[in-house]
């Protein structure tokens, strides 16, 4: 069963390769969705996949997938009625 979540990630998450490393983790776990920088300095992630893969993905995001990044806070929101994605994309 596919689940969908939104993650709002705060900390040192822009300008450190966070989005691209998040994509690598998502691809490895077969997670689909998007990751994008936000104007307030945070990163927004929409992720879809099986519950067990999403839990691993969330853990990796909270630990910061890039060594030069730092995650201070993650707000997680479950999503419903989300259009399916076929890949994980970095949005500019």
Keywords for this structure?
92 residues, alpha+beta, Alpha-Beta Plaits, 5-stranded mixed beta sheet, 2 helices, 5 strands, globular, EC 3.6.1.7, acylphosphatase, Acylphosphatase, Acylphosphatase-like_dom_sf, Acylphosphatase_CS
Structural write-up:
Keywords: Hydrolase. This is acylphosphatase. Its EC number is 3.6.1.7. InterPro entries: Acylphosphatase, Acylphosphatase-like_dom, Acylphosphatase-like_dom_sf, Acylphosphatase_CS. It contains two helices and five strands, in the order βαββαββ. By secondary structure, it is an alpha+beta fold. The chain has one domain (3-77): Alpha-Beta Plaits (2-Layer Sandwich). A five-stranded mixed β-sheet has the order 4-1-3-2-5, covered by helices on one side. Helix 1 packs antiparallel against helix 2. 28% of the residues are buried. The model has no long low-confidence stretch (mean pLDDT 95).
Lateral arrangement of strands in the main beta sheet: 4-1-3-2-5
Find the count of extended strands (DSSP E, 2+ residues): 5
Mean pLDDT over the full residue set: 95
Question: How does the helix and strand content classify structurally?
Answer: alpha+beta
- The residue ranges in which pLDDT falls below 50 over 5 or more consecutive positions are none
Can you summarize the main beta sheet? 5 strands, mixed
CATH topology: Alpha-Beta Plaits
Strand content: 35-45%
Counting structural domains, the number is 1
> What is the CA-atom radius of gyration, in angstroms?
12 Å
Proportion in helices: 25-40%
CATH class: Alpha Beta
**Secondary-structure element string:** EHEEHEE
Quaternary organization: single chain
Please work out how many helical segments DSSP would assign.
2
CA distance, first residue to last residue: 29 Å
Shape: globular
GO molecular function, one term: acylphosphatase activity
Domain Acylphosphatase-like: 4-92
Family: Belongs to the acylphosphatase family.
Active site: 19, 37
């Amino acid at each position: 069963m596919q689940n969908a979540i939104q993650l709002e990630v705060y900390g040192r998450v822009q300008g450190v390769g966070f989005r691209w490393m998040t994509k690598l983790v998502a691809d490895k776990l077969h997670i689909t969705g998007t990751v994008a920088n936000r104007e307030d300095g945070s990163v927004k992630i929409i992720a879809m996949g099986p519950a067990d893969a999403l839990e691993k993905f969330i853990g990796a995001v909270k630990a910061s997938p890039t060594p030069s990044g730092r995650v201070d806070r993650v707000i997680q929101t479950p999503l419903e009625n989300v259009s399916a994605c076929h890949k994980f994309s970095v949005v500019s």
